From TrEMBL:
InterPro entries: IolE (IPR023952), IolE/MocC (IPR030823), IolE/XylAMocC-like (IPR050312), Xyl_isomerase-like_sf (IPR036237), Xyl_isomerase-like_TIM-brl (IPR013022). This is Myo-inosose-2 dehydratase. The keyword RNA-binding does not apply. HAMAP family: IolE. GO terms for molecular function: myo-inosose-2 dehydratase activity. It comes from Schaalia naturae. The gene is iolE. The keyword Nucleotide-binding does not apply. Its EC number is 4.2.1.44. Coiled coil: none annotated. Keywords: Cobalt, Lyase, Manganese. It is an enzyme of class 4 (lyase).
Amino acid sequence: MSNIQLAIAPIAWTNDDLPELGAENTFEQCVSEMALAGYTGTEIGNKYPRDPAVLRRALEMRGLRVASAWTSLFLTTKPFEETERAFLAQRDFLHAMGAEVIVVAEQGHSVQGMEDVPVFDGKPHFTDSEWDRLTSGLERLGELAAQTGQKIVYHHHMGTGVQTTAEIDRLMAGTDPEKVSLLLDTGHLVFSGEDPMDIATRYKDRIAHVHLKDIRGPQLDEAKEKRMSFLTAIKNGVFTVPGDGIVDMEPVLRLFLDSDYDGWFVVEAEQDPAKANPLEYALKARDYIRSATGL
């Protein structure tokens, strides 16, 4: 238990995919409230300074460290070299900030950022050749990460080609465990209709990063019935913090607590901060995790 660290993502304060959500919230407010709520780590948002010295000073004053950051990949649709350049810049930035894992997700054909495309109906499905480009490209990125002592963690995600249990299985079967690890996101799995405990149990030894996200049941039903896009569902409140929705979170938490997992638990719940006060929900999540796990 002592090896697990607790972070929170800035997406509850300022949303990278929907910049209008939280546009009024500053970087300083975000990281100060993270620390006030009792977290020791953060992921990176669009308002964070990109100069490692500047960011490190701001975080150290608040007792925070960088857990990781999102990195978009286009291995299925663009030449590898384009993804490689962006990845190396992110790798080196995160290495300078002391982060040991790099969150990656394939965005080729993704509809997650399209407000007018239903997230289920428009979901892409990779061809065999695209799967080959994805898996071989991920292994090459894993090798580049290893050069600096880091590892990549793949984020299965709504509206992308790696969303379902079958797709996660194919990705894991097609990649070297020494080069490609998995990020477990409880909210994305339940949104998609998958079982987080099944994925956590099946790939416990390959999971190197965990996003703790909950789902509001009525909003999930509405997203399906009204064929909402991913971003519309977010604005409608489909996501919330751990302990505030329908996800059976405690068995998943217990699985990692009882294992040799030594990575981060990251609270991540993209919400409209005008409707869900970020500090209030950060405290709510912190209290839930403390009561459920003792962390």
